[in-house]
Amino acid sequence: MEKLWTTIEYLILGLVQGITEPIPISSSGHLVLFRELLGIETEGLSFEIFVNFASLLAIFIIYRKDIARLITNSYLYVFKKDESQKNDFLFIVYLVVGTIPVGVIGVLFGDAIGKALSDPVVVGYTLLITAAAIWAIRNLRGRKSDGDLSMKDAIIVGLAQAVAVTPGISRSGATIVASMLVGMKQETALRFSFLLYIPVSLGTAILDIPDLVSSEAFQALLIPNIVAFITAFIATYFALKWFMNIMAKGNLKYFSYYCVVVGLLVIFLM
C-alpha cells in the first residue's frame, strides 16, 4: 500500500511539472509547494532535472519542424553560402548567446540558489513577482519576427532566463515577458522562449541524469520515477499546445491572476 501511495505522489509531481513547465506560473515553484503539501523529500535538484528532461522531449517534439528548419538552413548558409538562409543562422546564434547567462549562473550558483530559495514562503513572494511581470506585458503586441531579432534582444532574454533559476520565477514567463518587452511578436516570443529552453535543459540532463539514474535512491524508487517521467512528458505536450492557443488569443492576464492568488495563499497559509 505504501509503494502504491508513493507512486501516486510521484504521478502528481510529474503532472504538476508537465502542466506548469510550459505555462508562466513556475514549474520549480509548484514542485516546491507540492512536495511540501505531500511531505515528499527529494535530494537536491535531481528529481526536477529528471522530470524537466521529460518536458524537454515533449517540447522538442512540438518544435521539431522549426529545429529541423533552423539546422538545415544554417548548414546551407555556412557551407553552401546561401545568403537567403542568414536569418535562420542568426536565430541559432541568438539562442546560443541567450543560453550563456543561465549556463554560467546554473553552474556557479544553481545548487545554492535552489537550497536558499526553495522555502514555500519565498516561492509565494516570487510568484507575486511573476504575476507582476506577466501583468506588465498583458496588452503588448510586438512587431519583430524571427528575422528582426538582434544580439541585444538575445542578451536581454538570456538574462531573464537566468533570473528564472529562482524557484517561483517562471522560466517561460520570464523569457516571454522579456521577449515581448523587446518588441517580439507573440509567436516569435513563444518560439524563441521554448527553443531557448532546449539547450539549457539538454545540457543539464547530459551532465546530471547518468549519475542520477545509477544512484541507489533512484533505483529504490524506479517505478515512481518512471511514472513521474511519463506523466510529465504527456502533460507538457498538451499543456504547451493549450498555451499556444492562449498566447494567440492574448489572454496572459489570467496567469497573472493565478500567480497572485496562489502566491498570497502560500504566504499566509504555509
TrEMBL record:
<dbReference type="GO" id="GO:0050380">
    <property type="term" value="F:undecaprenyl-diphosphatase activity"/>
</dbReference>
<keyword id="KW-0046">Antibiotic resistance</keyword>
<dbReference type="GO" id="GO:0009252">
    <property type="term" value="P:peptidoglycan biosynthetic process"/>
</dbReference>
<keyword id="KW-0378">Hydrolase</keyword>
<protein>
    <recommendedName>
        <fullName>Undecaprenyl-diphosphatase</fullName>
        <ecNumber>3.6.1.27</ecNumber>
    </recommendedName>
</protein>
<keyword id="KW-0812">Transmembrane</keyword>
<feature type="transmembrane region" description="Helical">
    <location>
        <begin position="89"/>
        <end position="109"/>
    </location>
</feature>
<dbReference type="GO" id="GO:0005886">
    <property type="term" value="C:plasma membrane"/>
</dbReference>
<feature type="transmembrane region" description="Helical">
    <location>
        <begin position="121"/>
        <end position="137"/>
    </location>
</feature>
<feature type="transmembrane region" description="Helical">
    <location>
        <begin position="189"/>
        <end position="209"/>
    </location>
</feature>
<dbReference type="Pfam" id="PF02673">
    <property type="entry name" value="BacA"/>
</dbReference>
<keyword id="KW-0133">Cell shape</keyword>
<keyword id="KW-0472">Membrane</keyword>
<comment type="function">
    <text>Catalyzes the dephosphorylation of undecaprenyl diphosphate (UPP). Confers resistance to bacitracin.</text>
</comment>
<comment type="similarity">
    <text>Belongs to the UppP family.</text>
</comment>
<dbReference type="InterPro" id="IPR003824">
    <property type="entry name" value="UppP"/>
</dbReference>
<dbReference type="GO" id="GO:0046677">
    <property type="term" value="P:response to antibiotic"/>
</dbReference>
<keyword id="KW-0573">Peptidoglycan synthesis</keyword>
<dbReference type="GO" id="GO:0008360">
    <property type="term" value="P:regulation of cell shape"/>
</dbReference>
<keyword id="KW-0961">Cell wall biogenesis/degradation</keyword>
<keyword id="KW-1003">Cell membrane</keyword>
<feature type="transmembrane region" description="Helical">
    <location>
        <begin position="45"/>
        <end position="63"/>
    </location>
</feature>
<feature type="transmembrane region" description="Helical">
    <location>
        <begin position="252"/>
        <end position="269"/>
    </location>
</feature>
<feature type="transmembrane region" description="Helical">
    <location>
        <begin position="221"/>
        <end position="240"/>
    </location>
</feature>
<keyword id="KW-1133">Transmembrane helix</keyword>
<dbReference type="GO" id="GO:0071555">
    <property type="term" value="P:cell wall organization"/>
</dbReference>
